[in-house]
C-alpha cells in the first residue's frame, strides 16, 4: 500500500524576490511506515522568513533546499499510520515536513501536541518556534529588565507581536512597535497594548522612532535590519541592548546592503548588539511554555493568525508573508 500525496518543490533558486516560478507541485506515492516510522496527514503548515534563506545556495546554519526536492518547514498533522508503538494513530504531532499533504517521518522527529491546551496554529506560532524566539531574544539575548523602553520592528508579525506583549506584561516602561500599515499599527496600540507604534512607510524611521520614543530606548528587538537598525542605534540610551533576530529588509537583496552608518555610537553609548538563533535556546522550551501557555489561555496574551486555505496557496502565502500582506503568524490549512 502507499498514499498519494502532493508536495511543493523548489523549482529554481530565486534571484531577488521569489516568484510563482520558484515553486512547482508534484504528485508522489508515500510508502506505508516501516518500523520506527509514522505517516502524518498534515493539517496546518507554517511559512517563515528563514525559508527564503534556505532557497539560496550558500553556507548557513541550516542546509539549503535542493532544487527539484520538496521544501520543508514546520507543520502540525495527525498520525494516520504508525510503526512505533509509542505514537498511536490519531496523535496530533508537530514536525518539520510541511509543504506536502502527507509526511513520512522517523517517530523520533515528531513531537505530540495537545489540541486541548491551545488551537493547533499556536504550536507553529505563539507557542512554537516564533514564540520561543521572542521569549529567548527578549529575556536572554536582550536581558530585558522591568522599566526598559523596548522597541520592536515587524511588530505585528509572528515574533514581533509576542515580543511587545511579553515586554509589556513583564513591566516594560514603554513599548513601541513599527509595522507596514496603519491597520497593523492600530492592532499594536488598540489590541495589544503597545504604548506607541508607527508605519515605517510614513517617513524616515529615525524621525518616526524619535517621535514615538522621545526619551530614547533601552532595548531594540531587530526583525528588520537596515534603516530600522540605524535608527534604533541612534535612539539607544547608554548601556542599551540590541537583539539581532532577523533582517528581513535585506533577505531579497541582490547586492550587498549598507551597514548602519552610526556604529561609532556603540562606543559612546556602550551598547551591546547580539545575534541570536532560536535553536540555541531549546533549554528554555519548558520554562517558555509554562509561562506563556497560561497567558494565552487566560487572554492576557493576544494572538493573530493569517490563515491561507489549501496547499495550492502555500507559495502565494509565503510571498504574502514576505510582503507583509496579513497580520500575525501566516499559516496554511492543508486539511481539517
Ligand atoms: N534568529 C532566529 O532564530 C529567528 C527565528 C524566527 C524568526 N526570525 C526572524 O525574525 C523576523 C520576524 O519573523 P516572523 O516569523 O515573525 O515574520 P513576520 O514578522 O510574521 O513576517 C515578516 C514581516 O516582515 C515585514 N517586512 C517585510 N519586508 C520588510 C521591510 N523591508 N522593512 C520592514 N519590515 C518588512 C512584513 O510586515 P510589515 O507589514 O510590517 O512590513 C512581513 O510580514 C524575521 O526577520 C525572521 O527571519 C529569526
Report what the structure shows:
This protein is of the alpha/beta class and 336 residues long. It is built from nine helices and 15 strands. The chain has helices spanning 50-54, 129-141, 158-169, 182-191, 205-212, 226-235, 265-268, 285-297, 314-323, and strands at 2-10, 23-31, 37-46, 75-82, 92-95, 102-106, 111-112, 149-152, 174-179, 196-199, 217-222, 236-244, 272-275, 305-309, 329-333. The strands form three sheets. Strands 3, 4, 5, 6, 7, 14 and 15 form a seven-stranded mixed beta sheet that branches. A six-stranded parallel beta sheet has the order 10-9-8-11-12-13, with helices on both faces. Helix 2 (129-141) crosses helix 3 and helix 5 crosses helix 6 (226-235). It binds NADP nicotinamide-adenine-dinucleotide phosphate (NAP). NADP nicotinamide-adenine-dinucleotide phosphate is lined by residues 48-50, 130, 133, 154, 156-160, 179-181, 184, 200, 223-224, 245-249, 276-278, 321, 324.
Q: What is the compact description of this entry?
A:
With 336 residues, the chain is of the alpha/beta class.
The structure class reads alpha/beta
Shape: globular
| Distinct small-molecule ligands in the complex | NADP nicotinamide-adenine-dinucleotide phosphate
Strand content: 25-35%
Number of strands: 15
Mean pLDDT across every amino acid position: 97
Which bin fits the share of residues in helices? Answer: 25-40%
String of helices and strands: EEEHEEEEHEHEHEHEHEHEHEHE
The largest sheet, given as strand count, sense and whether it forms a barrel, is: 7 strands, mixed
Number of helices: 9
Distance between the termini: 23 Å
- Runs in which pLDDT lies below 50 for 5 or more consecutive residues are none
Rounded to the nearest angstrom, the radius of gyration is 20 Å
Amino acid at each position: 500500500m502507499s498514499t498519494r500525496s502532493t508536495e511543493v518543490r523548489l523549482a529554481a533558486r530565486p534571484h531577488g524576490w521569489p516568484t510563482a516560478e520558484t515553486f512547482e507541485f508534484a504528485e508522489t506515492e508515500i510508502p506505508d511506515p516501516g518500523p520506527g516510522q509514522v505517516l502524518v496527514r498534515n493539517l496546518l503548515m507554517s511559512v517563515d522568513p528563514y525559508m527564503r534563506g534556505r532557497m539560496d545556495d550558500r553556507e548557513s546554519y541550516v542546509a539549503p533546499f535542493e532544487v527539484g526536492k520538496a521544501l520543508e518547514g514546520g507543520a502540525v498533522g495527525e498520525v494516520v499510520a504508525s510503526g512505533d508503538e509509542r505514537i498511536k494513530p490519531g496523535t496530533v504531532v508537530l514536525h518539520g515536513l510541511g509543504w506536502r499533504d502527507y509526511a513520512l517521518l522517523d517517530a523520533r522527529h515528531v513531537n505530540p501536541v495537545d489540541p486541548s491546551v491551545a488551537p493547533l496554529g499556536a504550536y507553529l506560532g505563539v507557542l512554537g518556534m516564533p514564540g520561543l524566539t521572542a521569549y529567548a531574544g527578549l529575556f536572554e539575548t536582550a536581558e530585558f529588565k522591568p522599566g526598559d523602553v523596548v522597541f520592536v520592528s515587524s511588530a505585528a508579525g509572528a515574533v514581533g507581536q509576542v515580543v511587545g506583549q511579553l515586554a509589556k506584561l513583564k513591566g516594560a516602561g514603554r513599548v513601541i512597535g513599527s509595522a507596514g500599515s496603519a491597520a497593523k499599527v492600530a492592532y499594536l496600540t488598540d489590541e495589544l497594548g503597545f504604548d506607541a507604534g508607527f508605519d515605517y512607510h510614513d517617513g524616515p524611521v529615525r524621525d518616526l522612532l524619535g517621535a514615538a520614543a522621545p526619551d530614547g530606548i533601552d532595548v531594540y528587538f531587530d526583525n528588520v535590519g537596515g534603516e530600522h537598525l540605524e535608527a534604533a542605534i541612534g535612539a539607544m540610551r547608554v548601556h542599551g541592548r540590541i537583539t539581532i533576530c532577523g533582517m528581513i529588509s535585506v533577505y531579497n537583496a541582490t547586492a550587498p546592503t549598507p551597514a548602519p552608518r552610526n556604529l561609532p555610537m556603540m562606543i559612546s553609548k556602550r551598547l551591546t548588539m547580539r545575534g541570536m538563533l532560536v535553536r540555541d535556546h531549546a533549554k528554555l522550551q519548558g520554562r517558555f511554555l509554562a509561562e506563556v501557555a497560561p497567558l494565552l489561555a487566560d487572554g492576557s496574551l493576544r494572538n493573530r493568525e493569517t490563515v491561507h486555505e489549501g496547499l495550492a496557496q502555500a507559495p502565494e502565502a509565503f510571498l504574502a508573508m514576505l510582503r507583509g500582506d496579513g497580520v500575525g503568524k501566516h499559516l496554511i490549512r492543508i486539511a481539517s
